[in-house]
TrEMBL record:
Pfam families for the chain: DJ-1_PfpI (PF01965)
Source species: Paspalum notatum var. saurae
InterPro entries linked: C56_PfpI-like, Class_I_gatase-like, DJ-1/PfpI
CDD domains to which the protein is assigned, alphabetical: GATase1_PfpI_1
Source superkingdom: Eukaryota
Stretches assigned to the DJ-1/PfpI domain: 5-190, 206-384
Lineage: Eukaryota, Viridiplantae, Streptophyta, Embryophyta, Tracheophyta
Gene3D superfamilies documented for this protein: 3.40.50.880
Name of the protein in its database record: DJ-1/PfpI domain-containing protein
Length: 393
């Protein structure tokens, strides 16, 4: 049996939130082990992340994100980078400090010398420039302010148009940032020799993510990007918004019960399809993220009816966290095992569910449920199983 793939993620305080979380949870869902390391931090320590998005000003705004746990020792990883199949370096301000850290630069240079896939987003291309890895005209994109850096380091600048573009030049995979995660995941999997199989006679499954203002930041974006990375056509819809409009997301950093997580503003999550054009028959799966958005969705009869229609047509229905409220209103939880966190256990039981108080995600027939965003890797994995999508190396 082939050894499982292992990816190293180079982290630090104020790395971009999505650019760390999406690769972490998406790769874990596909059976790839991800070690998160940071110079000066030990396993179990946390890194603070930052939300970067445009909120009406000429430059992106930075907001506080989640706390991401370091899982491996930096020195041990740097001593033998050949143990890893790829290196992911999120963007964010932490790359400025790491570009002057000899150990971090040496680690990036080692991966470049090994010609192992290097994923660089937003501002982390600065580290490859410091490591001399852009010499010789390597084609590279990044956030617009990095163009002089890329060119001064001997690279060839590629405009990030569209924002969802991931530029692959040999082992270097670069992008403007988190809008490109579907392409990043697809190209990283290909670079690591993965084979994505949608099952006999299947392919291009369509997934709908239901959203509204104050949808949970991770619970909307991670499935949206991860499923897109394995070839699904993923759309986002909201009954009160048109295609191209945005839903504001909310961040709830994990807090053990009975503590209540503080709510903070997250990224914008863009609606990709008009509500009037949404038909359950056009999709294979619906994903209902949590946050406070389900409190709005449940007041719209068309949203409740749509979820019910997905279930009646035998489609995959996947809900996480407060998304269970919408499923309860649609009558699809009766007699089903349901992984539910404390906030929705009562409503899940009232809806007739057999509540499973366990970590991870639970599949019961075509229903997938999970308690909260820390369960996203298992949640996405269960959805992939029901859609018949496998990834092998």
């Amino acid at each position: 049996m082939a050894s499982p793939r292992r990816v190293l993620m180079l982290c630090g305080d104020y790395m971009e939130d999505y650019e760390a979380a999406v690769p972490l949870y998406a790769l874990a869902a596909l059976g790839v082990a991800v070690d998160c390391v940071a110079p000066g931090k030990r396993p179990g320590d946390a890194c603070l992340t930052a939300v970067h998005d445009f909120l009406g000003f000429e430059l992106y705004t930075e907001l506080p994100g989640h706390r991401l746990t370091i899982t491996a020792d930096f020195s041990a990883a740097a001593a033998d980078p050949s143990r890893y199949d790829a290196l992911v370096v999120p963007g964010g301000r932490f790359t400025e400090a790491l570009s002057a850290d000899a150990g971090a630069v040496a680690l990036v240079a080692a991966f470049a010398a090994l010609r192992r896939p290097l994923v660089l987003t937003c501002h982390s291309q600065l580290l490859l420039a410091a490591a001399g890895g852009l010499r010789g005209g390597t084609r590279c994109t990044a956030f617009f302010s990095l163009r002089p850096v890329v060119e001064l380091a001997g690279g060839t600048w590629v405009d990030p148009d569209p924002f969802g573009l991931c530029v692959a030049d040999g082992h270097v995979l670069s992008a403007i940032g988190w809008p490109a995660h579907a392409q990043i995941i697809a190209k990283l999997l290909a670079a690591m020799g993965a084979r994505v199989d949608a099952g006999a006679g299947r392919g291009g499954q369509r997934v709908l993510v239901l959203c509204a203002d104050y949808v949970d930041d991770y619970e909307a974006n991670v499935p949206f990007r991860a499923l897109g990375g394995v070839g699904c056509q993923v759309e986002a819809a909201c009954p009160t918004k048109r295609k191209g409009e945005s839903c504001v997301t909310a961040i709830y950093d994990a807090a053990p019960w009975p503590a209540v997580s503080e709510e903070r503003r997250g990224h914008n999550f863009v609606v990709t399809v008009d509500w009037a054009d949404v038909r359950a028959g056009d999709f294979d799966c619906v994903v209902v993220p949590g946050g406070r958005a389900p409190e709005l969705l449940v007041t719209h009869e068309t949203a409740v009816a749509l979820v019910k229609e997905f279930a009646e047509q035998g489609k995959v229905v996947a809900s996480i966290d407060q998304g269970h409220l919408l499923l309860a209103a649609a009558g699809v939880l009766g007699g089903k095992k349901c992984a539910a966190g404390v906030p929705v256990r009562v409503v899940s039981r009232l809806a007739g569910a057999e509540v499973v108080e366990t970590e991870g995600a639970v599949a019961d027939g075509k229903l997938v449920t999970a308690a909260s965003w820390p369960d996203l890797a298992q949640f996405v994995a269960r959805v992939l199983d029901l859609l018949g999508i496998t990834v092998s190396f």
